[in-house]
Specification:
Order of helices and strands: HEHEHHEHHEHHEHEEHEHEH
Active site: 235
Bound molecules: (3S,4R)-3-hydroxy-2-oxopiperidin-4-yl beta-D-xylopyranoside
GO molecular function: endo-1,4-beta-xylanase activity
Distance between the termini: 9 Å
EC number: 3.2.1.8
Oligomer: single chain
Enzyme class: hydrolase
Protein name: Beta-xylanase
Number of strands: 9
Length: 299
């Protein structure tokens, strides 16, 4: 096959990209994105601050722009993200306790109802675990609302759109031998045992000096899949864009039957949130980097 999306589709997987609505008028950007990828994640446009800037006033203008571009070009859409400590609008940042809990479930219901039946998988909860060796939950207003906030979010999500697959998504959880990975694993195992509705786990896979790729990523993917959830690589970028590392990540996903797809976090290096890391598959002029060929050959 001659594109990432078509090559991934040979094994019924997707190869996706994060799309920024503000770049959809850049024809170099859109032509690469349309040609190469068959799944889309909105980089920021479906986050809490974008979709509910004022309490009770939903705004789907930018989210719909990304959604419509994707669907009009034949791509599936991942929803990102409904409950998160970051990119909360000011009104939500100032809430706590039961009022925040109610705002969280109202937000999940409001956004998922707007996109009901249209989103293949939603990142319902993002980044709930702390970094470092504690294995603890991350401190946040959501966490302080009660340790059950994550399962409450998942139950609200299932009720709002029963057809959507519901994912937990996090970063620095690729290395199997890390406390954060093990804490996430224990949570998913507990949810599956107790019937909390969770269908998938997303591994952001932002690899850099602080979170280097380790070949035990395949063990991580296999271990989570064995709990009975789909797994996916949701925000892949690699500092320096080593072709070998991009190939390893691709091969790790292909080795796990329940690894349903890979999403890279932007098109060209200049589109990346960490552009100084030159972490993506396309140069600023739109040409393919060696990492692109490595991924295509691996698929
Ligand atoms: C990033 C976006 O790429 C930036 O444009 C924005 O300023 C901050 O958020 N984990 C996530 C993503 O789940 O939503 C983040 O995206 C990157 C880290």
């Amino acid at each position: 096959e001659s594109t990432l999306g078509a090559a991934a589709a040979q094994s019924d997987r997707y190869f996706g990209v994060a799309i920024a609505s503000g770049r959809l008028n850049d024809s170099v950007y859109t032509s690469i994105a349309n040609r190469e990828f068959n799944s889309v994640t909105a980089e920021n446009e479906m986050k809490i601050d974008a979709t509910q800037p004022q309490r009770g006033q939903f705004n789907f203008t930018a989210g719909d722009r990304v959604y419509n571009w994707a669907v009009q070009n034949g791509k599936q859409v991942r929803g990102h993200t409904l409950a998160w400590h970051s990119q909360q609008p000011g009104w939500m940042q100032s809430l706590s306790g039961g009022e925040l809990r109610r705002a969280m479930t109202d937000h999940i219901t409001g956004v998922m109802t707007h996109y009901r039946g249209k989103i293949v998988e939603w990142d319902v909860v993002n980044e709930a675990f702390a970094d470092g060796g504690s294995g603890a939950r991350r401190d946040s207003n959501l966490q302080r609302s009660g340790n059950d906030w994550i399962e409450v979010a998942f139950r609200a999500a299932r009720a709002a759109d029963p057809a959507a697959k519901l994912c937990y998504n996090d970063y620095n959880v690729e290395n199997w031998n890390s406390a954060k990975t093990q804490a996430m694993y224990a949570m998913v195992r507990d949810f599956k045992q107790r019937g909390v509705p969770i269908d998938c786990v997303g591994f952001q896979a932002h690899f850099n000096e602080g979170n280097p790729y380790n070949s035990n990523f395949r063990t991580t993917l296999q271990s989570f899949a064995a709990l009975g959830v789909d797994v996916s690589v949701t925000e892949l970028d690699i500092q320096g864009a080593s072709p070998a590392t991009f190939a390893n990540v691709t091969n790790d996903c292909l080795a796990v039957a329940r690894c349903v797809g890979i999403t890279v976090w932007g098109v060209r290096d200049s589109d990346s949130w960490r552009s100084h890391h030159t972490p993506l598959l396309f140069n600023n002029d739109g040409s393919k980097k060696p990492a692109y060929d490595a991924v295509l050959n691996a698929l």
